C-alpha cells in the first residue's frame, strides 16, 4: 500500500472499508459474548455481598451471645448479693437496717427480672438472625451455582474468540496507521454516532447500506469513480461502490480465515 502522502482516494477508501470490516468482525465477536461479562461481574458482586452479609450476621450473633453471657453473670451476681443481704437481715439491730436491706434485695430481684427479659429478647434476636443466615446461605449457594455456570459459559466463548479478537485488534491498529489521522478521526466519530458501528458502507440497491434513502444517480456515478470521499447526507456514513466493497470483502475474508 502507498504511504499516507502518496495514497490515492481509491486507496484511502479501500483502507477505510478494510478497517470497517475488521472492526465489524470484532463487534460480531463481542456480540456473541453479549452481556455475559457484565452478568458474571454482577453475579460476583452479588456473591460477595451475600458472603459479607452472612459474616455480619454471624458477628451480630456472637455479639448477642456475649450480651447473654454478660446478663447471666449479672443474674449470678444479683443472686449472690440477695443471699448476702438475706444473711445480713438475720443480724440487723433495727427495722431501719432491715428495710434498707429489703430494698436492696428487691432491687436485685428487679435486676434479675430485667436481665431474664433481656436474655429472652436476645435469644429471639438470635433465632431471627439464624433464620436470615439460613435463607442467605441458600441464596448464596444458588447464586454461586449460577455464577459457576455463567463463568464456564464465558470461558468457553473466550477460549473460542479471544485469540481472534486480539489478532483483529492488532490488525485494526495496523490499518489505522496506514490512514491519515483526519480520516481516522472522522471514521471513529461516525462509528460512535451510529447504532451498528458502521461508518463505511457500500451502496445497496441505490441506497447507502442499511438505509432507505435513495442516492441520486449522479452521486452514485461519483462514488463509483473513486475520485473523492463522499458521505451520505442523511447518516453521515462514508460511501463506497459495491464493486470495491465486494473486492475488499473477499480479500478480508481470506485474511480472517488465516487468523
From TrEMBL:
The keyword 4Fe-4S does not apply. It comes from Zeaxanthinibacter enoshimensis. InterPro entries: Oxidative_Scav/Glycosyltrans (IPR052376), Zf-RING_7 (IPR003743). Residues 208-239 form the C4-type zinc ribbon domain. Residues 40-178 form a coiled coil. This is C4-type zinc ribbon domain-containing protein. The keyword Coiled coil applies. Keywords: Coiled coil.
Amino acid at each position: 500500500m502507498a504511504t499516507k502522502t502518496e495514497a490515492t482516494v481509491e486507496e484511502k477508501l479501500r483502507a477505510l472499508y478494510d478497517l470497517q470490516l475488521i472492526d465489524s468482525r470484532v463487534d460480531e465477536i463481542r456480540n456473541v459474548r453479549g452481556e455475559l461479562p457484565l452478568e458474571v461481574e454482577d453475579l460476583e458482586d452479588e456473591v460477595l455481598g451475600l458472603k459479607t452479609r452472612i459474616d455480619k450476621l454471624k458477628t451480630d450473633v456472637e455479639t448477642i451471645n456475649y450480651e447473654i453471657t454478660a446478663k447471666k453473670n449479672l443474674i449470678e451476681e444479683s443472686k449472690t448479693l440477695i443471699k448476702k443481704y438475706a444473711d445480713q437481715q438475720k443480724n440487723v439491730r433495727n427495722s431501719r437496717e432491715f428495710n434498707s436491706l429489703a430494698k436492696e434485695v428487691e432491687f436485685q430481684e428487679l435486676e434479675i427480672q430485667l436481665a431474664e427479659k433481656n436474655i429472652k429478647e436476645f435469644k429471639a434476636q438470635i433465632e431471627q438472625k439464624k433464620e436470615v443466615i439460613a435463607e442467605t446461605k441458600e441464596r448464596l449457594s444458588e447464586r454461586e451455582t449460577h455464577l459457576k455456570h455463567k463463568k464456564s459459559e464465558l470461558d468457553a466463548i473466550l477460549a473460542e474468540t479471544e485469540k481472534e479478537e486480539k489478532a483483529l485488534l492488532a490488525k485494526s491498529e495496523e490499518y489505522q496507521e496506514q490512514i491519515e489521522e483526519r480520516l481516522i478521526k472522522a471514521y471513529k466519530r461516525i462509528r460512535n454516532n451510529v447504532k451498528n458501528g458502521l461508518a463505511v458502507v457500500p451502496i445497496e440497491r441505490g441506497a447507502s447500506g442499511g438505509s432507505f434513502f435513495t442516492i441520486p444517480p449522479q452521486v452514485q456515478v461519483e462514488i463509483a469513480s473513486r475520485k473523492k470521499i463522499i458521505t451520505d447526507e442523511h447518516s453521515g456514513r462514508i460511501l463506497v461502490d459495491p464493486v470495491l466493497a465486494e473486492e475488499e470483502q473477499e480479500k478480508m475474508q481470506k485474511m480472517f480465515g488465516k487468523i
